[in-house]
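User: Please predict the structure of the protein below. I'd like the answer in structure-token form so I can feed it into my own downstream comparison script.

Assistant: Understood. Taking the following sequence of 267 residues as input:
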Amino acid sequence: MKTLFIAFLLFFQLSYSQSEITLKVQYNEFIAQHPKIVMKNIGALYMSKDFSFYKVEPIESEKKSEIEDGQTIILDSNEKDFLFSEIIVNNKEKTLTETLYENLFLKKHYAVKENLSVMKWEILDDEKKINNYLCKSAQITFRGRSYTAWYTEQIPIFSGPWKFNGLPGLILSVSDKKGIYKWEVKSITYPYKGKEIDLKKININNPKFKSISYKDFDIKRIKAINEKIEMIRARNANRTENKASYSYSTFLEKEPTNEWRTKFFFD
């Protein structure tokens, strides 16, 4: 009964606040781009009635450099190697904007805009408790990667970390089936009374970020990858020894494919 009452208060509060943030959820975000090395970030989801805002933040701590047999090392990210990314969802307009710094090929700041994806989840029968919340499971294949999520109907928020949305409850945990990406809830703050985020002043309108569609950004980025490969080939065309080679695969990215691109490997 207490849980249902809290859920009702949460729904009531979100229904009558337009831009005032009423819920904050923190996630541990893990990226396993090597079988024995996992990068860890902290993600924070802020919710109001009309907006959600997901921000990934680096963790300042010492990195471990030695790997013992059978051991997986968790590397906390830091400012030096951190890839900036924020995701803003306008629920009224059904749009999503990711403000990011593309540091691999384009070396520029962008506000990448797209329609909010309609995620077609398959609801499963499994149940378990996470942080004392009863959770149900669901699975989906989204832009080339298959995920399993755990969500709770005790918190009637149809959102979660990163771009995940569309389940009948807050997503507390989600991981892809290849074990590369994983999000786990760290804390839930409701009612949220912090002031560190103002939805009216987030980076979506910052002139530092060039506004671009998701499709055009993807085309521009793929072109930059191919140009870099061609540049390396040209530099090495007349060399007979110690030739350098370069290739790039989208396999490790969150979205290895999308509506316009199916290619995985560039060589």
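That's the full token string. The chain has two domains: 2-212, 217-266.
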